[in-house]
Amino acid sequence: MGAAAYPWEPPLTATIKAQPEDFQVEELPATMPEGRGEHVWLEIEKRLLNSEDVAVWLARESGAGRGRVSYAGRKDRQAVTRQWFSVQCPPESEPDWVVRAEAWNAAQADGETAGRARVLQVARHARKLRTGHLAGNRFEIRLGAVEGDRAAAEAILAAIREGGIPNYFGAQRFGRDNLARARAWLGGGRPPRSRNQRSLLLSAARSAIFNAVLAERVRRGDWNRLLPGDVANLEGSGSVFPVAEVDAELEARAARLDIHPTGPLWGKGSMQTGGEVQALEAAVAAGEPELAEGLERADMKAARRSLRMVPGTVDWRWEGEDLMLSLELGAGEYATGLLEAICQPREPGMTP
Fold first, then answer.
1. Are 134 and 331 in contact (CB under 8 A)?
2. What is the pLDDT of residues 106-164, one digit of tens each?
3. For the segment 278-304, what is each residue's pLDDT rounded down to a tens digit?
4. Is CATH 3.30.2340.10 what the domain over 165-309 is classified as, yes or no?
5. For the domain 31-132, what is the CATH code?
6. Which residues are catalytic?
7. Which of 1, 40, 82, 164 shows the greatest Cβ crowding within 10 Å of its Cβ?
8. Which part of the chain has CATH 3.30.2350.20?
């Protein structure tokens, strides 16, 4: 997917995710279950499991089948995370789900997910959880055995808190080989076996093109400024509008983080851009013809994503040689991007 570019060099070296507890995530739901309905919502804490692992486990343990289990967002495997899942199960056909959850938790001492999945809450709701239906995520992250310029790192964190950061898709969006598999499939190879795999590969393809456009805008120094022909995003919403010309009012709104320039989520239909922005994005996409043309053939609808991420919270403290970060990010925003901006990772176990 290429290396992410930032307006500064990361001043630190540190160990990241030496153990799962070093990367803790709490999903912030967009809505809470109301207490009745045909979907059972379960808040689950997991460790060393990804979201799909838990969904498959829930499908098997409940007998509902994988097609009736859903979740709002994918969470890391190498972490301790809390998130909601939903299982479609009509009330008239259910056992007591609270009792069932207690039994699952008790069985974890001997099960295949021993110590790795725990049900925290159970409640019913009228609707299932849909992908992207979350307010955001709260992170508590430990960077271990930090070396480097602490003052420079704190200055970057303060700048991010005040002015945002390039909104790259994180490495977990690409998995181990999703991008290579997407290139092979969209270039004419064998299609994925499941709908879930198809979705993962299409997401990786779109994310790669977006990241490449963003990296080019960062290299040019205009990732956080509106250009004529840009499409602007209204902060905190999915609303976008084309920018034919940039006047003083639009410049002021962008400076106070009210609006942001956007990049392409490639697919069929108009990207809504014009001028040099349209030319830049077309040139980047032309460098990935298998991905761009394959996304169009797959009937993915063109969309836009903000080039700038503005965290809700960025706090930090030092504990000896470790740096503790507290972050609150919106849906679809990646903490790994912020880590890469301040820190070059050291492999766990390497001597500082």
1. yes
2. 666 555 555 588 889 999 999 999 999 999 999 999 999 999 999 999 999 999 999 99
3. 999 999 999 999 999 999 999 999 999
4. yes
5. 3.30.2350.20
6. 76
7. 40
8. 31-132
Percent of the chain with pLDDT over 70: 93
Any idea which residue has 């903490």 for tokens?
335
Beta partners for 329? 137
The CATH 3.30.2340.10 domain(s) of the chain lie at 165-309
CA–CA distance, 247 with 96 (Å, rounded to integer): 61
* C-alpha span between 102 and 158 (Å, rounded): 44
Place of tokens 């919403």: 237
Distance CA 275, CA 277 (A): 5
Tell me which amino acid residue 190 is: R
pTM of the model: 0.87
Least confident of 10-14, 67-71, 112-116, 234-238: 112-116
Any idea which residue has 């049900």 for tokens? 119
> What Rg value do the Cα atoms of the chain yield, rounded?
21
